[in-house]
Amino acid sequence: MGPFLTLASFGEYLVPLALLELYFRAQSHGAVCGKWVLAATLSFLTLASAIGIFAATQGLWWPRV
Description:
The structure is a single chain. It contains two helices and no strands. It is flat, with a radius of gyration of 16 Å. It is mainly alpha-helical.
């Protein structure tokens, strides 16, 4: 395994855990502005994930059906 795959395997766990930690901190004692910023960030990342899933489906799955 190369260094990129090692970094990617750590990142796929650590990035969502970091976002979850930010969510819990904002929920427990965050300002309203901070909650809105976090909600916008999570919404953007959700949209980016949906676009990536759609693109992967179109490029990798549909051509083989």
